[in-house]
TrEMBL record:
This is Ribosyldihydronicotinamide dehydrogenase [quinone]. The gene is Nqo2. It is an enzyme of class 1 (oxidoreductase). SUPFAM superfamilies: Flavoproteins. Homodimer. InterPro entries: Flavodoxin_fold (IPR003680), Flavoprotein-like_sf (IPR029039), NAD(P)H_dehydrogenase_qn (IPR051545). Its EC number is 1.10.5.1.
Length: 229
């Protein structure tokens, strides 16, 4: 009870399977006494492009634009655009970040990648001397909850798509762990569009059950071995 959760949700349709997973998470976590905030990126028409519009006020170097440097300088002086400040505040307050999305091309949808690109700026989420276990967002947990088009067999070590863990490496390790966030085991619903209604119901029940004991879970061992062993 009393824990704060931010769910960053990237699906266009509330009636989708991802929409159902979101709804379950909000209901179940609220029932536990958590306060849950949702950033529904499509509904917000979140801007995924990292541009100079992200800096309010004068640029640090108006001769040559360097996004990383400019957002870092803007963050330090409180000069980031309003939408970024709002998202950073939600991240700052959260004990747990849940990312809910369908896998697109072995990655996250562009709108969610844009959220990562724009919100997790230097100075806020990491510093070059403070990354991975020393990242600036320590004491936070994250969980990637995603749906796939392919089956579990396709995403196995011997399958055509390779181990799903390879796909998760850039997201879980390259972004979350880099920023110091601890990572819970991902929650993957394989090919919900291609299974029976009964099987889909089972998937939703499994998500509800997992959420009930979520706070007792240990984060994964954030090392290359977990992904590539």
């Amino acid at each position: 009870p009393g824990k704060k959760v931010l769910i960053v949700y990237a699906h266009q349709e509330p009636k989708s399977f991802n929409g159902s997973l979101l709804k379950i998470a909000v209901e179940e976590l609220t029932k536990q006494g958590c306060s849950v905030t949702v950033s529904d990126l499509y509904a917000m028409q979140f801007e995924p492009r990292a541009t100079r519009n992200d800096i309010a006020g004068p640029l640090h170097n108006s001769e040559e634009f360097n996004y990383g440097v400019e957002t870092w300088e803007a963050y330090k002086r409180g000069g980031l655009s309003k939408d970024l400040v709002e998202e950073q505040k939600k991240v700052q307050e959260a004990d747990l970040l849940i990312f809910q999305f369908p896998l697109f091309w072995f990655s996250m949808p562009a709108i969610l990648k844009g959220w990562m690109d724009r919100v997790l700026v230097q100075g806020f989420a990491y510093d070059l001397s403070k990354s991975y276990d020393g990242g600036l967002l320590q004491d936070k947990l994250s969980l990637f909850s995603l749906t796939t088009g392919g089956t579990k067999e396709m995403y196995s070590k011997g399958g055509i798509s390779g181990d799903i863990r390879y796909v998760l490496w850039p997201m879980q390790h390259g972004i979350m762990h880099f920023c110091g966030v601890r990572v819970l085991e991902p929650h993957i619903c394989y090919a919900p569009e291609n299974v029976s209604a009964e099987k889909r119901k089972e998937m939703l029940t499994a998500w509800t059950q997992r959420l009930k004991t979520l706070w007792k879970e240990e984060p994964i061992n954030c090392s290359p071995e977990w992904y590539f062993k």
